[in-house]
């Protein structure tokens, strides 16, 4: 789990890459499971500064965490992402790319993860195309010391291949849900961040 208090939106020479990795890690944590009260309180006490779209979206998440209670967030998480039968909001890439779970996009993802030397841990219950898992892979590709696999080219290829085609649709679905209260600003932060990533990769 990344430290929410370490997330700062700074210039390249002041740790932009660290901030990117931290934000991917935080999104992974918030989307994989309901956050603990400790994490909510930690984010709620994080620094807020700046007027960019990304910084304002971050400020909204900080405000939401400051007012949030663990049990209410847990109930919302289960209502949105678990539910009975089909979840209200799907967090799996295969669903958006093919219309079904466990389809060809997941098989292709597993092949690419293997080439990166990565595989799902035995204690992880979600498939690899879960948005939280993909965010965690991006965090690794940014923060790892593995110069062979963890570099800007690898980040761009992985993001464009396995995330770009559907993550905004996922964020929009979550942001539009009438049942999303805590997760509405989380979805907005994710959407804005992914849009920034797309713009940066396009200019690379």
TrEMBL record:
<keyword id="KW-0143">Chaperone</keyword>
<protein>
    <submittedName>
        <fullName>Molecular chaperone</fullName>
    </submittedName>
</protein>
<dbReference type="InterPro" id="IPR020945">
    <property type="entry name" value="DMSO/NO3_reduct_chaperone"/>
</dbReference>
<dbReference type="InterPro" id="IPR050289">
    <property type="entry name" value="TorD/DmsD_chaperones"/>
</dbReference>
<dbReference type="InterPro" id="IPR036411">
    <property type="entry name" value="TorD-like_sf"/>
</dbReference>
<dbReference type="Pfam" id="PF02613">
    <property type="entry name" value="Nitrate_red_del"/>
</dbReference>
């Amino acid at each position: 789990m990344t430290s929410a208090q370490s997330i700062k939106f700074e210039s390249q020479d002041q740790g932009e890459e660290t901030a990117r990795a931290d934000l991917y890690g935080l999104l992974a944590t918030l989307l994989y499971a309901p956050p603990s009260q400790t994490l909510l309180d930690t984010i709620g006490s994080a620094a807020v500064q700046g007027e960019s779209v990304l910084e304002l979206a971050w400020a909204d998440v900080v405000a939401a965490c400051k007012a949030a209670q663990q049990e209410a967030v847990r109930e919302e998480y289960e209502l949105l992402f678990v539910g009975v039968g089909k979840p209200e909001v799907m967090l799996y890439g295969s669903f958006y790319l093919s219309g079904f779970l466990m389809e060809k996009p997941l098989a292709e993802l597993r092949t690419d993860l293997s080439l990166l030397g990565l595989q799902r841990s035995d204690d992880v219950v979600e498939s690899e195309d879960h948005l939280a898992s993909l965010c965690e892979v991006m965090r690794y590709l940014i923060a790892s010391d593995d110069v062979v696999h963890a570099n800007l080219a690898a980040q761009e290829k992985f993001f464009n291949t396995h995330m770009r085609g559907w993550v905004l649709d996922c964020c929009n679905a979550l942001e539009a849900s009438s049942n999303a209260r805590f997760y509405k600003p989380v979805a907005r932060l994710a959407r804005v961040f992914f849009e920034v990533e797309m713009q940066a990769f396009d200019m690379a």
